[in-house]
Predict the 3D structure of the following.
Amino acid sequence: MISPRHHTVGMNLSETSFHTLPLAAGLLDNLASLGYRDMTAIQAAALPRILAGSDLVGQAKTGSGKTVAFGIPIIESCEPTGLTQALVLCPTRELATQVSEEMQWLQGGKGLRFVTVYGGTDIDKQAKVLDAGCDIIVGTPGRVIDMSKRGHINLEHITHFALDEADRMLDMGFFPDILWCLERLTNRKQTLLFSATFPQE
Ligand code: ADP
Ligand code: MG
């Protein structure tokens, strides 16, 4: 069976290899071992700009490889310190889980600690996991805010903030929650917003 991650039929690949990017050798080796050679169109357009430090709004249809477009630069920027340096917000628990798993798979042996934070799970258990420290949080807005208010997520050190499926998040009424996070991300250096459509908000 072909893993869906390797099912690239119909994918809009560019002719530019990941090796043209200024990425750590370990990360490039891992991408190659995962079978990633050429970037998709959105990746080829977005990755050089994000890696150069720009904020970016990326719009591309479903299945065009947006997770790699924001995931790789976040992985490249973070170090395994146990202090939360990046926050990725997704509209649903399924998407948060999927993005978190894909980013962990993409990082190879870098050793970044991820915690996936979404509602409907045991708060005390999740608090213990968060209190042990993590480098990257991927989650849904409601639970991320709840855990921040309870003191288990510290937004202050976070430098990288990404919104995935921003259009769906706005449709689901998460705009105030996103603003709540933005106001408290006082050390934010880069903001990335990825979406299949371009929401006016
Ligand atoms: P989107 O978020 O835009 O809907 P995904 O990030 O989920 O798309 O990617 C869709 C699929 O394409 C995933 O299975 C992913 O592993 C694969 N993929 C992404 N980038 C590449 C690439 N450069 N080469 C091959 N496969 C890729
Ligand atoms: Mg996606």
